[in-house]
Write a structure and sequence with these properties.
The protein is built from five helices and seven strands. The chain is an alpha/beta fold. Helix 4 crosses helix 5.
């Protein structure tokens, strides 16, 4: 009897209170990217969980985030709540979560904080992905690049 190894399906997540994005990289499939579902200007945990079940990720790489200086209390709370809902749904489905700081994954690609450069690189790496055309699609591009970072680095390590 042979034991099959699950195919590595990497979910990249750029968290946020309302404008969170995801990307999925899987062998022999075009990348899947999009925005995390929301309801009433907040992450919709039920819809996000259903989407995760449809995507079948085997690991998730989530950007390590924190509040920013001069960010308002309400904005910081919404950002933390959105990030918690995103991570909670992933954890509830027992998908291993790897955190990566923005400086670490961006250094891998020689990027700085300019989100437009991230979007341009994602377009160059994945020209067939059409959902990166708008300037506001930088979150999708960064989620895709985080998944690619995981493919380039974590795939070389032993993963569950």
């Amino acid at each position: 009897m042979t034991v099959s190894t699950p195919t590595l399906r990497i979910l990249g997540v750029d968290p946020g209170s309302v404008s969170a994005s995801f990307a999925l990289l899987a062998p022999f499939e075009p990348p899947t990217i999009g925005d995390i579902p929301t309801a009433n200007r907040q992450v919709d945990p039920a819809a996000w969980t259903r989407l995760l079940l449809d995507l079948h990720p085997t690991i998730a790489i989530v950007e390590r985030v924190s509040s920013r200086p001069r960010q308002g209390v309400g904005s910081a709370f919404a950002f933390g709540m959105g990030t918690g809902l995103i991570r909670g749904a992933i954890a509830a489905l027992q998908i291993p979560i790897y955190e990566v700081s923005p400086t670490k994954w961006k250094a891998h690609f020689r990027l700085d904080t300019d989100k437009e450069k991230s979007r341009a690189l994602a377009i160059r790496l994945y020209p067939a992905v059409t959902d990166l055309a708008r300037k506001k699609d930088h979150g999708r591009a960064e989620a895709l690049l985080m998944a690619r970072y995981a493919l380039d680095t974590l795939a070389l390590q032993k993963l569950p």
